[in-house]
From TrEMBL:
CDD domains: SHMT. Its cofactor is pyridoxal 5'-phosphate. Keywords: Amino-acid biosynthesis, Cytoplasm, One-carbon metabolism, Pyridoxal phosphate, Transferase. The lineage of its organism: Bacteria, Bacillati, Actinomycetota, Actinomycetes, Kitasatosporales. It catalyses: (6R)-5,10-methylene-5,6,7,8-tetrahydrofolate + glycine + H2O = (6S)-5,6,7,8-tetrahydrofolate + L-serine. Its EC number is 2.1.2.1. Catalyzes the reversible interconversion of serine and glycine with tetrahydrofolate (THF) serving as the one-carbon carrier. This reaction serves as the major source of one-carbon groups required for the biosynthesis of purines, thymidylate, methionine, and other important biomolecules. Also exhibits THF-independent aldolase activity toward beta-hydroxyamino acids, producing glycine and aldehydes, via a retro-aldol mechanism. Residues 15-388 form the Serine hydroxymethyltransferase-like domain. This is Serine hydroxymethyltransferase.
Length: 419
């Protein structure tokens, strides 16, 4: 009987033509469009190879040296390597690299520090917080008593006075800082002070920006937070997956929360790919890449302002750009669909204080991780901003230029990358 996938041979997909066609379609899609989705990045061939490597088969429940399965010699060494490299890269005392994803890492952090019904203070989802910051559809909103802080109407920055007032009134057990749609560096020290005043743990959800901190471009939450949540994909360009950094005091609680409370066996192939990317991100080339992501985002924000969009907070300190699209007369959803039709991927995003419902949204969110991995620089991002302006004005000629720009850029997924 034929195997479904004969790995490593181009003939593999002759065995399952339907899937072969889908894989081709996905590769073609990636080649033909410009990708400004904030959470996506091109992965290096080594990451693809490690994800598809022999480590994928291995079960290794537990931690190095204390597994529930035998045959874990190489798996132990891989996990140790990933954890020690994460600790070195981010300057942390303890790393747990097992979480399957960022959301699962947040669930584990909650499990380590909270009981159902406990109070949490987090960035409100309407102002840029992730679902795990108290959405009613998520475990966070269902199992905890979550109060939400937001940004100031005047300048779009996090309102630390409001955070302090809510902390005093709500007495949270966990103060959760971090967001998906906030383009500015976060003042972790100020959050620490507020957490200390009310006796709360400080958890930093730094999934978007921890890579920039590792590169020294923005302040790191690691010296301030009790627990830091990160992901190895997004800006870091590694495998999809989460990880946790914490203090010595919380190390055991965090480890037991990840396994056996939330997860079963870690994905050893994912651990290997994490180890790889934590090693690469400690090299100067990654610092150059991260700085270029920020420079590209700043040019994109300025270019979009010139096209009539209003950058939230007036600009960006990171690889993220969020804009209010009100002046275009279109909702974020309408713009997102128009852009997709023209071969450009970006995301709709809620604009704080705007009445537009989240499903439509008044704004857009973009990130420069993917395009920067492809080698795009400031002049190209300026061009991209103009193209987005043309799409908003209904100019159908933009699609051809987008495809040309996309196809001229390298690397594509799995072919080659800067790290
Ligand atoms: C991406 C992200 C998450 C969730 O990560 P997943 O791997 O998608 O589960 C959580 N918080 C923030 C701030 C993120 O950017």
């Amino acid at each position: 009987m034929a195997t479904i996938v004969e790995s490593g041979t181009p003939r593999a997909w002759a065995v399952d033509e339907a899937l072969g066609r889908l894989l081709d379609a996905e590769r073609g899609r990636q080649r033909d469009c410009l990708n400004l989705l904030a959470g996506e990045n091109v992965m290096a061939p080594a990451v693809h190879q490690l994800l598809g490597s022999a480590f994928a088969e291995k079960y290794a429940e537990g931690y190095p040296g204390r597994r529930h399965h035998t045959g874990c010699g190489p798996a132990d060494a891989v996990e140790e390597l990933a954890a020690r490299r994460a600790e070195a890269l981010f300057g942390a005392v303890h790393a747990n690299v097992q979480p399957y994803s960022g959301s699962v890492a947040l669930l584990a952090a909650a499990a380590a520090l909270l009981k159902p019904g406990d109070s949490v203070l987090a960035m409100s989802v309407a102002h840029g917080g992730h679902l795990t910051s108290g959405s009613a559809a998520n475990f966070s909103g269902r199992w905890f008593d979550v109060a939400g802080y937001g940004v100031r109407r005047a300048d779009g920055r996090i309102d630390l006075d409001q955070v302090r007032d809510l902390a005093r009134a709500h007495r949270p057990k966990v103060l959760l800082a971090g967001a998906i749609a906030y383009p500015r560096a976060i003042d972790w020290a100020a959050f620490r002070e507020i957490a200390d005043e009310v006796g709360a743990f400080l958890v930093a959800d730094a999934a978007q920006t921890l890579g920039l901190s590792a590169a020294g471009l923005i302040a790191s939450p690691v010296p301030h937070a009790d627990v830091v949540v990160g992901v190895s994909h997004k800006l870091l360009g590694g495998p999809r997956g989460g990880f946790l950094l914490c203090t010595r005091e919380l190390a055991e609680r965090i480890d037991r929360a990840v396994f056996p409370f939330v997860q079963g066996g870690p994905m050893v192939n994912q651990l290997a790919a994490k180890a790889y990317i934590f090693g690469q991100a400690d090299r100067p080339a990654f610092g150059d890449y991260a700085a270029q992501c920020v420079a590209n985002a700043q040019v994109l924000a300025e270019g979009l302002a010139a096209e009539g969009f209003r950058p939230l907070t007036g600009g960006t300190d990171t690889h993220l750009v969020t804009v209010d699209a009100e002046a275009t007369g279109l909702t974020g959803r309408e713009l997102e669909l128009r852009a997709e039709e023209a071969g450009l991927l970006l995301g709709r995003c809620a604009v704080p204080f705007a009445p537009t419902p989240p499903s439509e949204a008044a704004g857009l969110r973009m990130g420069t991780a993917w395009t920067t991995s492809q080698g795009l620089r400031e002049p190209e991002l300026e061009h991209v901003a103009r193209l987005i302006g043309r799409i908003a004005r209904g100019d159908r000629g933009a699609a051809g230029e987008i495809r040309e720009l996309a196809q001229s850029t390298k690397p594509q997924c799995g072919e080659s990358a800067s790290f």
